[in-house]
Amino acid sequence: MMLSILFALVIFAGVLISQRFGVYLGHRNKRAAGEEGMAGVGSLEGATFGLMGLLVAFTFTGAATRFNDRRDLITQQVNAIGTAWLRLDLLKEPERKTLQEGFRRYVDIELEIVREGGDEEQIRAGMNRLSAVQQEIWTNLVQAVRNDTSLPLAQVVLPPVNEMFDLSTSRLMAAQQHPPLPVFLMLGLLVLLSSLFAGFDMARARTKSPLHVYGFAVVMALSVYLILDIEYPRLGFITIESFDRAMIDLRATMG
Q1: In the 8-state DSSP scheme, what is residue 234?
Q2: Distance of alpha carbon 252 from alpha carbon 255, whole angstroms
Q3: DSSP assignment, residue 92?
Q4: Over the stretch 143-170, which tens digit does the pLDDT of each residue have?
Q5: Please, is 43 exposed, middle or buried when counting C-beta atoms within 10 Å of its C-beta (0-12, 13-18, 19+)?
Q6: 3-class secondary structure, 127
Q7: For residues 142-164, b (16+ Cβ closer than 10 Å) or e, as one string?
Q8: How many CB atoms lie within 10 A of CB 21?
């Protein structure tokens, strides 16, 4: 979160500096070549602004799509765990009690991983514990199905548990999917270059509008911050923690 705020502040200051430097270059070019020296720059400015807008739209759309996908995966995972938990009632004791205890530990570890936020070391350790619990649950479940032949348990119990494991992996992997760092660096570069060109074009005016100068800087900084905030939904102001409540409520029903 602090890095996102810092990056946005750097963009804000960089836009203002780039604009001022562009005005300086514009005045210098105007003194050297007159008005003819400004000819033809409009097409270059338009192309640069268009490319910047395209990249902003691309990164924002990608972040919003991944944000929605992560919320959907939480819902699907909670439903899968709930279904698998109910299917355990078909098992006999003591296997059922053993598996229910394993499910409780499984959900507890899932919630611990969520609470770790961006601590990669703790998340990796949690994933290792989760993998061990998964193996334990699956081994005990297969053994329970083999021991009980009164019902076709394999077709009823095994699929939802397998889906539960698959969705857990998908959710954890989705949380680590982000655009490469060069994409964000290119976005920042285009914002600064567009500001430089805007300042160069403003050199034609005798007076500069502070509203447009600072307004453009604020809009660009907020846009970049919003993209980063949505891209990392557990570290900023826009979060998916409300969907984690479903997992917490499910754990409460397990006793």
Answers
A1: T
A2: 6
A3: P
A4: 888 887 666 777 888 888 999 999 988 8
A5: exposed
A6: helix
A7: eebbeebeeeebeeebbebbebb
A8: 15
State the maximum Cα–Cα separation within the chain, in Å, rounded to a whole number: 94
| pTM for this predicted structure | 0.79
Tokens 């999917």: give the residue.
177
Nearest-angstrom CA–CA distance, 52 and 38: 22
Calpha distance 73→70 (Å, rounded): 5
Q: How far apart are CA 46 and CA 27, in angstroms?
A: 20
Structure tokens at 43: 């097409």
225 neighbors 7 (Cβ within 8 angstroms): yes
List, in sequence order, the alpha helices (H) in the chain. 2-33, 41-87, 95-115, 120-147, 153-174, 181-202, 210-231, 241-253
Per-residue pLDDT of 202-237, as tens digits, reads 877 777 788 888 999 999 999 989 998 888 877 777
Q: Give the Cα separation of 154 and 233 in Å (integer).
A: 38
